[in-house]
Amino acid sequence: MNNDIGVIGMAVMGRNLALNIANHGYNVSIFNRTVKKTKDVVYNNPKKTIFPFFFIKDFLNSLKKPRCIFLMVQSGSSVDNVISSLIPYLNSGDIIIDGGNSFYKDTIRRYHELLKDNINFIGAGISGGEYGALTGPSIMPGGKKVVYNIIKPILKSISSKFDNEDCVSYIGPDGSGHYVKMVHNGIEYADMQLISETYSILKNILNLNNEEISNIFSFWNKGELKSYLIEITKNILLKKDGKHDLIDCILDSAVNKGTGKWTCKNALDLEESLTIITNSVFSRYLSSLKSQRTLASKILSGPKINSIIHNQEDFIEKLRQALYLGKIISYSQGFSQLGSASKKYFWNLKCGNIAKIFRSGCIIQAACLNKIVDIYKYDDIIINLLFSPYFQDISNKYHSSLREIVSYVIKQGISIPAFSSAITYYDGYRTKESSANLIQAQRDYFGAHTYKRYDKEGIYHTNWIE
Ligand code: 6PG
C-alpha cells in the first residue's frame, strides 16, 4: 500500500479531516486508539478512499515515503504519548503534523526533540470546528518551510477558499502556527463576549424577545458586521426546544479549554495591552461562579433597570456602531500581539497573510478581515491597525456611540466588560499625557526606582522625605 497520508485520532475533528482529505482524491490511512471508532468511520463512509488500521506498525507501513501523519488528538500529554508510540517505526524525513489546539511552547519543544531524530514536525493550527474540518477549515502551519512545501498540496486542497484563494499559508518556524491559532482563539473569545453583551443590552435595556434580537443580528449581518459568529448567533436565537426558545434553557456559565487564557498570559509576557480578550476570559470565569453570583444578586445593591429609550432605532444603530468599533479595537490588540511575538520570537509573521487565511473557514471569519488584508497590503509593518486610514475613520465616526452605549448601560447596572474595556483602551491609547507620571513618582518615593523627566535627559531619584 502507498497511501498519501495517515490520520490518527477519530474523534469528530480527526474523522472529518480524514473525510475531507479523502474527498479530495487522496488515499487516507486512519487509526484510533479504540478500534470501534476507526471501524465506524469506514462503516459510515464505505465508498471513501479511507483505509482502517488497528496497529500503529501496519498504519505506518501503509503510507508512502516520506510518511505524513496527521495527529488529531487531544492537546497535552496525548500528543506526546502518540508521538512516543510512533517513534520506533519512523524514518528520517517522515513528517508529523499536529492539527490539534496544542500550546505553542509544547510545539516548539516537540519540534526540537523530533529534529534530533530527523523527524519533521509541523504544528498546524486548524480552525472551523467540526463542519469546517469536513468542508474546508482555515489552516495555520508552522515548522520548516521545505517540509510545509511537501504537504502543501494536500493542505491547500482541503482548506477553505475565499475568492478562490486557499485559506492556508505558511506561518513561520516551529510553534508559530499554533501561536497564531492561539491568538485566533483569543480574538474568538472577544468577538463572542462582545456579541453576548450586545444580546444582553438588547434583551435587558430594550426588552426585546429572542426573535426580535435575531432579526437585528440578521440585519447587521448584511453590513460591516458580517461574520460567522453573528450568523450563528441569529440562528441560535431562533432555535426551539419544544415550546421554549433553547437559548433561555441554557445555563449562563461558560467554560473554556484554555486557549484564551494562554493568549492573555502571553500578552502579559510581551507587555501587550490585550484588554478586551483578557476581560472576555475573565468574564467566562465570572460566569462560572453561578452560586456566588446568585447570592451576591440578593445582597449587593445596584440600580434597577429603568430604561426609557425614546428612539429605539437610533439606539440600535448606536449599538451596532459600538459593537463594530469594539470588534475592530479587539482585532487591533490581537494583531498588535502577533507583531510583538513575531519580533520577540524571530518568526517573521506575515500579518497580511494571516488575515487572508482568517477570511474563510475559521470561527472569526468576518468582513472586516478583508479590510485588514488591504491595510497590510499597503503597510506590512504597521504598528497598530488603529493607525490605518480605515480603522481611524471607523474610530472617529463610532467612538461617541461606543462611549454613549457604555455609559448608558453601566448606569443601568449591566455588566459589559468587553465594551467598557474597548472604550477605555481606546481613550488610553489616544491619550498623549497619561497619569503614569504619578506612578513613576510613587515608585521612586517608596522604592528609589528612579524616573525620567520631560524637561531634561537622564535618570533621576529624589529624596522625597526631607
Ligand atoms: C476553532 C475553535 C476551536 C476551539 C473551540 C472551543 O477555531 O475551531 O477555536 O479550536 O476549540 O472554539 O474553545 P473554548 O472551549 O476554549 O471556548
Key structural traits:
466 residues; alpha/beta; Rossmann fold; N-(1-d-carboxylethyl)-l-norvaline Dehydrogenase, domain 2; two-stranded antiparallel ribbon; 55% helix; globular; 6-phosphogluconate dehydrogenase, decarboxylating; 6PGDH_C; EC 1.1.1.44
Give the gist of this structure.
By secondary structure, this protein is α/β, with parallel strands linked by helices. 55% of the residues lie in helices and 9% in strands.
Structural features, described:
By secondary structure, the protein is α/β, with parallel strands linked by helices. It folds into three domains: 5-174, 3-Layer(aba) Sandwich (Rossmann fold); 181-429, N-(1-d-carboxylethyl)-l-norvaline Dehydrogenase, domain 2; 435-466, Single alpha-helices involved in coiled-coils or other helix-helix interfaces, CATH 1.20.5. Helix content is 55%, strand content 9%. The protein has 19 helices and eleven strands. The protein has helices at residues 12-23, 35-44, 56-61, 77-86, 104-115, 129-135, 145-158, 176-204, 210-220, 228-236, 259-270, 275-287, 290-299, 312-344, 351-357, 368-378, 389-411, 417-429, 436-447, and strands at residues 5-8, 28-31, 50-53, 68-71, 95-98, 120-127, 138-142, 161-162, 165-166, 240-241, 244-245. The strands form three sheets. Strands 3-2-1-4-5-6-7 form a seven-stranded mixed β-sheet, sandwiched between helices. A two-stranded antiparallel sheet has the order 8-9. A two-stranded antiparallel sheet has the order 10-11. Helix 9 runs antiparallel to helix 10 (228-236), helix 14 crosses helix 17 and helix 15 packs antiparallel against helix 16. It is globular, with a radius of gyration of 25 Å. The model has no long low-confidence stretch (mean pLDDT 97). 6-phosphogluconic acid (6PG) is lined by residues 101, 127-129, 185, 188, 256-257, 259-260, 362-363. GO terms for molecular function: NADP binding; phosphogluconate dehydrogenase (decarboxylating) activity.
